[in-house]
Design a protein that fits this description.
The structure holds two protein chains of two kinds.
Chain A lengths: L1 E4 L3 E5 L3 H12 L3 E5 L5 H6 L3 H5 L1 H11 L8 E4 L2 E9 L2 E8 L2 E7 L1 E4 L4 E4 L12 E3 H9 L12 E6 L7 H16 L3 E6 L9 H10 L3 E4 L5 E2 L6 E5 L4 E5 L3 E4 L1 E4 L4 H8 L26 E3 L9 H19 L3 E4 L4 E3 L9 H5 L5 E3 L3 E3 L9 H5 L5 E3 L4 H13 L7 E6 L3 H10 L8 E6 L7 H9 L4 E7 L9 H18 L7 E6 L4 H18 L6
Parallel strand pairs in A: 2-3, 2-8, 3-4, 8-19, 10-17, 11-12, 11-17, 12-13, 25-26, 25-27, 27-28
Antiparallel strand pairs in A: 1-20, 5-6, 6-7, 9-18, 14-15, 15-16, 21-24, 22-23
Helix pairs in contact in A: 1-9, 5-6, 6-7, 13-16
Chain B lengths: L5 E6 L3 H10 L4 E6 L25 H13 L3 E4 L2 E7 L4 E7 L6 H11 L8 E3 L9 E3 L4 H7 L12 E7 L1 E4 L3 E3 L16 E3 H11 L13 E8 L15 H15 L4 E5 L10 H11 L1 E3 L5 E4 L5 E6 L6 E6 L1 E6 L1 E3 L3 H8 L25 E3 L9 H19 L4
Parallel strand pairs in B: 1-2, 1-9, 2-3, 9-20, 11-18, 12-13, 12-18, 13-14
Antiparallel strand pairs in B: 4-5, 5-8, 6-7, 10-19, 15-16, 16-17
Classes of the chains: A alpha/beta, B alpha/beta.
């Protein structure tokens, strides 16, 4: 281990609610922060996601109170009206170029927090509606509601229809907005009608808010599909499942729900930062190893609406978690890190860039040869196995040490079939520990080889296992979507298929080599896979290569 | 343990407490993790992986991962079978912790292992549910005197007493968790009386033991399964004005596992409103709609049918008449209720409970800081939370505790 200096500045992309809070948390911890925001000022950035405060006014008040001093806070620089042009470097030492007006600005930082707020997009088309003075979006309604009692368009005697959770599956933020809105209508003497499918109440206090809004007189129609509705919104008819009859309404105002999405430039930002996108372009994969705020790259963290639909409380919580992660990563600026987690043999390297492309953690940069950052590398070994020149070695899992594991384990011949299992330490190695502790039956000829990720299992290891006397070989890895290194399991699957094909061509039964996915708590499943394979190997007899 | 360092006590070793301990360990602090039960991991550690042909983001493996981290961390001292019985002083607090005998030596563990299956006292010896449950066997403290009679000759010293120790803590994080709804309260569902009416948690325990989701009565794969949602949650008559967040996710994920293992299984889901399930919720829900039958009503009664099968009766919307459907397994999606110790803990720590008996929060955003200096709340102490929500909330509690302790970069 050696001491490594890291930059203790942090970039925060996004200067809205979650960005401001993240910046504040980081500054309080003693880090210097640069906020990068497209909008001309931070107030406007927050205003773009004003609906978050409308959904939960008390959360909004608390949030505003906490960040009111932010513009003058020590250690926070706000670069507004600014967009990201270029981003490079490695965790601990990132560099970026920004365009501010017509000027190019450069900054450096050790870590990044991605904190774009959600954007609201009305779903008129999904409901077959054309926006007009009668047909408005939820955001427009909230603007009217903020206008106060003077605005009678949502008050006395008015019939206001809210459409939510029918044009999309919906979420607790959209639901909260409608419930708040319906209550405002009732308070001002109007009548709120809420057309909704699944009522999303899985958030603190929301079931009670639902009860309160019904008690205030708002009427909820729980439907399973979009009701019949005239495109100008003048008429809505739906079958009331409780009354069993059609209910028609001629509303004065139709309020259409909004989808909550990441900003349109999210893919571009992800590309520049070399982080993976998740569902609907959220800036975090749908992978439990990342939750709450990690990305596939060390030193880059994702919060609030950048990673999922989040209310203000969610963004607040994420900001705290990202601050903890930044602290774990940057500490006081001096880190103890291994000198290298992976080394490239310059003599062997043919500059093909395979490692650069296949690294799931964006840990490889390029000088006169590939350089693997010890702070960014997670030692999964995918690059080492993909390198066509075998030029990369992973510390503690060098090819020689894996092969000597194989040699040792296969030196004793058992009466039962020799079964070599390559076990990913994140899943099957743990599952094996569980199976042993639970006293489950395991094949007596089982030999395990510990790998950091199944992505480390080289074609060569599979051949070696057979050549050294294995009757069968298993590659045990994590379920699709659960690989800590994103696609180590995918690479392993491809390699197994390749070797199976080659075994078949060589006249060997290809079922002697298998691939299975497991989780760390699947001791029973592991025992089942192993004993099933042992049974089959007994039928097949000893390997012809023995 | 370094005596120069400051100390934080985390009460509760479920997912929130484990996460709090993990995150605190990043700072130069001593951490005492005090768990009332004999094993760490709380309810979350009993859950099985819900992957079908792909990961479903149930987070059960995350619990294992965090548990392992906590066990291996030198700054964290785990106190199993332990409860805080007294607290005095302002911050730093002096806490008295009472601990049950653990029988953790190799010799004691091997005696317990030998006697586990044949133990004549029901629930006398307990076994862990995780590879990271160390020690793996434990003696139920409530059954020690009964065990003395039957295991007198086993070589196990059952005369060991509860012990007490005094610990100081500059800060306390309360992560004492929740209680699952007691399904017997809904008498018309016959839970506890009808063998194949099980709770989701019962099914998880069965799978941990057998490796499969099976019918409790005969341990065979069920053919026709019903899931009933909102058992105990969203129930105004019971005064439970909250959604439990986790039951739609665990029921639908479990149903999909059953379906993927045995595609012939017919599964019905009785529900009011389906809540979102992870980041890809609409896609997963669409998959479920193809695989499962969704019935938007909450059943009235469950009756015994032939061969331990069950008749689930529901009221028709149009005329109020009753119809019934036969199932061979009914899974009750029991919800998250306030922890059974909440009142005692509130009194002990001088904290307030809210109208629902969860712990009172002072703010809508910082839901971890309490009126008592240095005492913070995490996880389901304040209301229902999923595993990932509990993990994030524990992070917030740690951040606030770190601020309180004045720890910066």
């Amino acid at each position: 281990m050696i001491e490594t200096e890291v930059n203790t500045s942090v970039f925060v992309f996004g200067g809205g609610w979650s960005g401001q809070r993240a910046a504040q948390e980081l500054a309080e911890m003693g880090y210097t922060v640069t906020i990068v925001e497209n909008e001309p000022d931070l107030g406007q950035a927050r205003q773009k996601a004003e609906f978050l405060a409308n959904a939960a006014p008390k959360q909004g008040e608390e949030f505003q109170a906490s960040i009111k001093d932010l513009p003058s806070s020590k250690g926070i620089e706000s670069l507004t009206g600014t967009s990201l042009l270029h981003f490079e470097g490695m965790p601990g030492n990132f560099r970026m170029k920004l365009l501010q007006g017509s000027q190019v600005v450069e900054r450096q930082a050790g870590a990044v927090v991605v904190a774009s707020d959600l954007q609201a997009e009305p779903l008129y088309e999904t409901y077959g509606l054309t926006p007009s003075s009668r047909v408005i979006s939820q955001s427009q309604f909230e603007a009217l509601a903020r206008g106060g009692q003077a605005d009678d368009s949502i008050g006395q005697g008015k019939k206001i229809a809210f459409l939510v959770g029918l044009g999309q599956e919906g979420n607790t933020v959209a639901m909260r907005r409608v419930m708040q809105g319906a209550q405002v209508v009732q308070e001002r003497g109007g009548q709120a009608y809420v057309y909704v499918n699944n009522i999303k109440v899985a958030a603190q206090g929301l079931e009670r808010l639902y009860r309160d809004s019904r008690e205030s007189g708002a009427i909820f129609f729980k439907l399973s599909a979009v009701p019949e509705i005239k495109s100008d919104g003048a008429y809505i008819a739906s079958l009331d499942p409780v009354l069993g009859q059609e209910v028609a309404l001629d509303p004065d105002l139709v309020v259409v729900e909004e989808a909550l999405r990441v900003p349109g430039d999210a893919p571009k930002l992800a590309h520049l930062l070399r982080i993976d996108l998740g569902p609907w372009n959220f800036l975090q994969e749908n992978n439990v190893h990342r939750f709450p705020t990690l990305s596939n790259r060390e030193g880059i963290f994702v919060v609030g609406g950048s990673r999922d639909v989040a209310d203000l409380a969610g963004s607040w919580t994420d900001a705290a978690n990202a601050a903890l992660e930044v602290h774990k990563f940057l500490g006081d600026g001096t880190k103890l890190a291994p000198e290298a987690k992976a080394v490239v043999d310059k003599e062997k390297c043919c500059f093909c860039l395979t490692c650069y492309r296949c690294c799931p953690h964006g840990a490889i940069s390029w000088e006169d040869k590939p350089v693997i950052s010890p702070l960014a590398c997670q030692a999964c070994g995918i690059c080492a196995s993909e390198c066509p020149q075998d030029a990369i070695q992973i510390m503690a899992f060098e090819d020689d040490s894996i092969k000597s594991q194989l040699d040792q384990s296969l030196s004793q011949t058992a009466e039962t079939p020799n079964l070599v299992a390559f076990c990913c330490e994140n899943s099957s190695l743990e599952a094996l520990k569980m199976a042993r502790l639970f006293g489950l039956d395991l094949p007596s000829g089982l030999r395990t080889v510990h790998v950091p990720c199944a992505g480390k299992v080289d074609l060569d290891y599979l051949f070696s296992a057979f050549l050294k006397g294995a009757d069968g070989v298993l590659v045990l890895t994590c379920h699709p979507g659960n690989c800590k290194s994103v696609r180590g399991n995918t690479f392993a699957g491809w390699r197994v298929e390749n070797v199976q094909r080659m075994l078949a061509n060589a006249g060997m039964d290809k079922s002697r080599l298998r691939f299975a996915t497991l989780a760390s708590n699947m001791g029973h499943e592991l025992a089942g896979i192993l004993s099933g394979m042992e049974d089959d190997l007994k039928k097949l007899g000893p390997s012809p290569l023995k | 343990m370094n005596s120069e360092r400051r100390t934080v006590m985390v009460i509760g070793g479920g997912i929130a407490g484990l996460t709090a301990a993990r995150d605190l360990a990043d700072y130069d602090l001593n951490i005492h993790l005090v768990e009332k039960e004999l094993f760490l991991g709380g309810h979350a550690i009993t859950y099985n992986c819900k992957a079908t042909d792909e990961c479903r983001q149930c987070d059960a493996c995350t619990v294992e991962k965090i548990l392992k981290y906590v066990l291996e961390h030198p700054n964290i001292t785990v106190h199993l079978g332990s409860q805080v019985v007294d607290i005095s002083g302002g911050a730093p607090y002096t806490l008295t912790v009472e601990q049950a005998p653990l029988f953790a030596s190799d010799e004691e563990q091997s005696i317990l292992a030998q006697n586990y299956a044949s133990c004549p006292v029901p629930d006398g010896i307990r076994k862990g549910t995780s590879a990271n449950h160390i020690p793996f066997y434990a003696v139920n403290p409530a059954k020690i005197s009964e065990l003395k009679e039957s295991m007198g000759s086993s070589g196990l010293n059952l005369d060991q007493q509860f012990s007490r120790q005094t610990l100081n803590a500059d800060s306390v994080i309360l992560a004492s968790g929740f209680a699952p709804f007691n399904a017997e309260v809904k008498t018309t569902y016959g839970y506890g009386r009808l063998p194949n009416v099980a709770t989701g948690l019962d099914m998880e325990v069965l799978k941990k033991e057998t490796g499969h989701y099976v019918r409790p009565s005969d341990q065979r794969a069920p053919q026709k399964v019903a899931f009933i949602q909102c058992v105990g949650s969203r129930n105004e008559q019971l005064g439970h004005l909250w959604c439990s967040h986790v039951c739609c996710p665990y029921a639908l994920r479990m149903a999909e596992v059953m379906k993927s293992q045995n595609p012939e299984t017919q599964i019905s889901v009785y529900y009011m409103d389906i809540q979102n399930i992870g980041k890809e919720s609409p896609l997963f829900y669409n998959q479920c709609k193809q695989d499962l039958e969704f019935i938007r009503t909450i059943p009235v009664d469950i009756y015994a049918g032939d061969d331990d099968r069950l008749l689930v009766s529901t009221m028709n919307d149009d005329d109020g008449s009753l119809t019934s459907q036969e199932h061979d397994l009914v899974v009750l999606s029991v919800g998250i209720m306030p922890g059974r110790d909440n009142r005692a803990l509130a009194q002990l720590l001088d904290l307030d409970l809210n109208q629902d008996d969860f712990f009172h929060v002072q703010n809508e955003l910082d839901t971890t800081t309490t009126q008592r200096p240095g005492v913070f709340l995490a996880g389901t102490t304040i209301g229902p939370k999923s595993i990932s929500e509990s993990i994030a909330h524990a992070g917030l509690a740690v951040r606030e505790a770190a601020k309180y302790l004045g720890v910066s970069k």
